[in-house]
Write a structure and sequence with these properties.
The chain is an all-alpha fold and 378 residues long. It has 15 helices and two strands. It has a two-stranded antiparallel sheet.
Length: 378
């Protein structure tokens, strides 16, 4: 979970400090500090439970016993799927020192357009699914392009534009849905777009338990790793995010990379709701399409240090905790403790990792000075 391309300035500098130590050493130290931070978070959460009159041992026992069942592990992966997409979308922006808070608006807009387009096509199953994915990616990127234009042309900070565009997206989606895409033939209260045909429905890995979008999520993470860490484009992206001025001297246009990063981030956002659209509700609907994954993706990306492996592990952790919330309620433990644990874990992991990496940087600098001094003396 290294952050070798984290920016040295800008809004992300204090939460994405780059390590100057070796990659292997940084990875091992970050992993150890993350595990320590999780233990600290669980201790703090246990204290909060005790203060509210609940037994933390009983609560944690319920979480572990419930989450260890095969059905709950499948539910964990199902819940983690949209979080992986959302976190990757956020992480792409982070690599360019861009804070894309507009994932929610981007993926909801993409879900509506993809669901409506897919319901009017008649194609073989694999092609139909691929076309819907492409439409979702294009729609998400199109909505993100508004923020990209405002950033490079009007110098509007992406935090402002993307969070405002979330609310604009909700209004645009409601107008499009109510006036053009709403299907009232069922006559129920849970209105949706026209249902997708069978050829547009993503098959399940485990019937009714885990949808094929989980595999797609892992593929997207693998592509993210290859593009960002193993390609020339990824080097340019990380270099621009690390120091735009220095990158420009090498002929890398920060403006161009900003546009591309936001378009890729928006495109990946288009995948977030496809599990619901193609695997569960088979349509878009205001009450059928989940709306909570935008900001959750930011937490998962931060917890995973924007690294592909870290993102998958963090998403699975969040999915694991979410899958046990119903059983906690039955055990008379407030299921809101799950959100509390998630929030505390993110805070403690970020704080402990930052303190650890900054301490490593100080020691690395001291060692370098000592070696230079020894070399000068000799």
């Amino acid at each position: 979970m290294t952050t070798d391309a984290a920016p040295t300035g800008g809004p992300l500098a204090k939460i994405l400090t780059p390590s100057r130590a070796s990659g292997l050493r940084t990875s091992a130290t970050t992993l150890a500090s993350s595990l320590l931070a999780v233990l600290i978070a669980l201790t703090i959460s246990a204290a909060l439970l005790a203060l509210t009159g609940k037994n933390p041992i009983d609560a944690y026992s319920t979480i572990i016993q419930t989450g260890a069942s095969a059905n709950k592990l499948l539910e964990m992966m199902r819940r983690a799927t949209p979080l992986i997409f959302s976190a990757v979308a956020v992480a792409v922006g982070f690599k360019m020192n861009i804070f894309n808070i507009g994932v929610q608006g981007q993926y909801l807009f993409a879900a509506l357009i993809a669901a409506e387009a897919g319901s009017h096509l008649g194609l073989p199953l694999p092609i139909h699914i691929a076309v819907i994915m492409i439409v979702a990616v294009v729609a998400g990127a199109a909505w993100a392009s508004i923020a990209a234009y405002l950033k490079v042309s009007k110098n509007v900070h992406e935090v402002i534009s993307t969070i405002m565009l979330n609310y604009v997206a909700l209004s645009v989606i409601q107008w499009l849905f109510e006036n053009f895409f709403r299907d009232d033939r069922d006559g129920g209260l849970n209105v949706k777009t026209t249902l997708l045909p069978d050829s547009a429905r993503m098959p399940d890995i485990v019937d009714g338990r885990l949808n094929g979008m989980f595999i797609v999520a892992l593929i997207v993470v693998a592509i993210f790793w290859l593009v960002v860490y193993k390609s020339t484009f990824g080097f340019k992206l990380r270099a621009s995010g690390f120091n735009a001025t220095a990158a420009s001297t090498a002929g890398i246009s920060a403006r161009k990379m900003t546009v591309i990063a936001l378009l890729i981030s928006g495109g990946v956002s288009g995948f977030v709701a496809l599990q619901s659209v193609m695997g569960e509700a088979f349509a878009y609907g205001p009450n059928a399409t989940p709306t909570e994954f935008g900001f959750a993706g930011i937490a998962v990306a931060l917890l995973g240090r924007n690294h592909p492996i870290g993102i998958v592990v963090s998403a699975l952790l969040f999915g694991f905790l979410d899958s046990t919330s119903a059983e906690l309620q039955l055990a008379l433990v407030p299921n809101s403790i799950v959100k509390v644990i998630q929030a505390i874990i993110v805070l403690t992991v970020v704080i402990v990792n930052e303190a650890t990496i900054r301490r490593m940087n100080i020691r690395t600098a001291e060692r370098a000075r000592a070696e230079l001094a020894a070399g000068g003396a000799s």
